[in-house]
Amino acid sequence: MAAIFWKSIKHYTRIPGSFAIYLALPFLFTLLIFGMGRFVGGGNASAYFAARTGTTNILVYEMLGSAVWMTSWVVVEDVGVSLRNEQVTGTLEQNFLAPIDRATLLVGMSLADIVITTAIFLIAVGATVALTMPTDILGLFQAYLMLLIGLIPLFGICFLFAGIIIRFKEPYIFVQIVNVLFAVLTGTYYPVALLPFWIRFLSGLLPQTYVIEDMRQIILANQNLVSLYGNVFVLFALALVYPTIGYAIFKRIERKASVTGEFSKY
Hints:
Layout: H1 2-14, H2 16-41, H3 45-53, H4 58-89, H5 92-97, H6 102-132, H7 139-168, H8 171-185, H9 197-203, H10 207-220, H11 229-260
C-alpha cells in the first residue's frame, strides 16, 4: 500500500504545473461566480445573496463550495483515470497479477488523494478564511474533519466508477459528466434548498452535499460538529454503505473482465 501511495504522490509532484492548476481552480471558479453575481445583481447583489443563503460573506461561501467540488474532481479523476492509464500502458495486468488484494490498490490511491485534497483545503479555504475571517480560523479544523469524513463515501463511489471505466474504457467523458453533476447536485454555489424536490432527493444521496453544507455552517454560522450531529451521522452511514457497495461491484466487474479479457482490450 505504501508503494502505491508514493507512486501516486510522485505522479503529482512530477508535473507540478498540473498540481498548481488544481490549487488555482477553486480561486478562479469562485472569482468567476463572484463577478457574475456582482454584474447581474448590481448594488443589491449582497442583499439578494444574503436573502437566499443567510450570509453576506460571498467569497467564503463560494470558496467552500469550490474547494469541496475540486476535491471531488481530483478523487474521481484520479481513481478512474489512473486505472485506465495503467490499462493503456500495460501495467494494470501486472498489478492485478501481483499477490495483493484489490482493496490495497484502491486504498493506496485513495490515501494519496487525501494528501492532495488536504493541500487544496489548506490553500484555498485556509487562505480565504485567514484573510477575510481571521477571528474564525479555529473553525477550519472542524471543517477539515467534515471533509475527511466525506471523503470515505466518495471513495466508495469512485470504486464503482473504477469498475465501470475498466468495462467501458471511456474515463474522460464519464468523469467530466460526473463532475458537472456533482457541481449541480451538491449545492456548490447555491443552497440545495433552491433545487426542485426530486433533485434534492438525489442531492441527499451524495456525501459532498452534507460536507459543503456543514462546512458553511461551521465557518459562517459558528456551528460545531455536535450541533450538526444529524448530518455527521448520515456521512458515517454513507461511509459504511458506499465503500462496501462500490468495492463489491468493482470486484464483480473485475471477475467478469478476467473471464472476457477486458483488461487486455484497448
